[in-house]
Amino acid sequence: xxxxxxxxxxxxxSMFSLxxxxxxxxxxxxxxxxxxxxxxxxxxxxxxxxxxxxxxAVARLLRDHAELRFDYCSNxxxxxxxxxxxxxxxxxxxxxEGGEQEIEATRTARRPAHLEVVYHLYSMEHRQGPLILRLCxxxxxxxxxxxxxxxxxxxxxxxxxxxxxxxxxxxxGHPDLRRIFMWDxxxxxPMRKDYVEPDxxxxxxxxHDEVLAKARKHQLPEAPT
Amino acid sequence: MKPEVExxxxxxxxxxxxxxxxxxxxxAMGPHHPSTHGVFRMDVVLDGERIVQLKPVFGYLHRNHxxxxxxxxxxxxxxxxxxxxxxxSLTNNWAYTLAVEKLAGLTVPERAEYIRIITAELTRLxxxxxxxxxxxxxxxxxxxxxxxxxxxxxxxxxxxxxLTGARMMCNYMRFGGCRCDLPEDWVPRAKKVVAxxxxxxxxxxxxxxxxxxxxxxxxxxxxxxxALAVNAGITGPMLRASGVNYDLRKVDxxxxxxxxxxxxxxxxxxxxxxxxxxxxxxxRESVKILEQALATIPDGPIIDPKTRLRGFRPKGGxxxxxxxxxxxxxxxxxxxxxxxxxYRYRIRPPSLINLTxxxxxxxxxxxxxxxxxxxxxxxxxxxVDR
Lengths: 225, 386
Description:
- The structure holds 2 protein chains of 2 kinds.
- Chain A has one domain: NADH:ubiquinone oxidoreductase Nqo5 subunit (Beta Polymerase, domain 2, 2-Layer Sandwich).
- Chain A has 5 helices and 9 strands.
- The N and C termini of chain A lie far apart (70 Å).
- At the A-B interface, helix 1, strand 3 and helix 4 of A face strand 3, helix 3, helix 8, strand 6 and strand 7 of B.
């Protein structure tokens, strides 16, 4: 029983707590807007939400900082969050005669629809991790762009392509952003929660004309002149 | 490992000045090519016989496993994980159950941890033996090495069959423990198989490790520098062949691996030969772990009887669990919203991510070398495409 608990503890960043990492990042990159996302599960793997504009700078610092050295990006994944509304009970303080009184009130919480990309970072050099970064898009349609972290960690190359393919997150700065599992002509994003399966799986256009030209463009380099 | 590994995405030199005009040839290797180990395609651009560009093409076996996982209960996903890397169903089970255990805070009885280690190391043995056999098959040693490897694998599959009822699709582990206890004569049988394995490895090495053709075809072919390997997320024997000491059995110490004495073999050059040989050395270390585990396996329960497998609903939250699978770091990332099915079920596939550097390894080599390099990466398409 204790052994399993010890094994869980080992997965936490051993050298720095998430708060320390956050304050270091904030000191180095003052424009970064960081937020710790608590994880209520017994795994205790809390994560760090990073704003889109400073994501690349934060990632580069995490990789190159001598004490942090998160040199290995293990896992990249997308999550689709539909718009949601729920009520939760909160305790608020209300001034009454002769002091304050705590009362319970219900509050409506809202989550706008958005796509989220989660990066699991480890440090091979210091053997610590996981440090979990979360990046959020503005919405699920027009504003579904995020900066690519492939220039920082090459291991994101195929995984970001996969997130693009299945979730429809557009990674700006990715060197080769194409569909990876679905075929090029496929239109929808199958991992989204509101995806509707096609009636006919057999239909697949034969590549010709425009599609063929597009395929040529990324497959065959120009012959030397 | 220098910290300043800048822009690690390679630039393809599309117009080398020395290439003759009109010599480019585009060849689609696969999806039905014997060396691609399944339905994998490499779109190669050749200058004569040299590879100028290589683009891996995936998706022929894509069935959106992750979407399937979101549509079924936590328990129902276990048999599906068998089908990822169908050579190593038991390690797939383990990675998934480890992630669920973290998500729900479950603990595993000692005996179950021992059984997990024993089955995982047996899986590693047969995976590495087959990898060596397939690699040599691809190099032209038709039949014999592969049949030797399969002969060993059969013995291990017999053990799996006796334990789980299935040879490949074992569906054996459960969150919180294992499905059933070891049969009565299983430990002595396993001991016998393990005791015979070093002889097989010796024989294999005597026949092959200094074989002139093998050396000529693999040494110096497809060298992977350590800095690139780390940055590209390469894991498993392929990473260690480049000299990076990173084995999750030592780093995370999941299960009870810290109870056993074993070493982490490292390569020096990161070439195809090192990738082959590191696996042969790892087999010897697996034998050591197996000998210790089989000698000291304790009695006891294999699962807490109060664990609710059916109707399992972990509280909201998320967890990432990873293990050292034979092919590299196999991870599962689960998000629970408190319902009976995971809200998000993600697999971190080592086979796919280890292919990230395939183009870097193959560029400048011949087509025949690409076959050898791909063979040494060790992929299974069930896991690549999911």
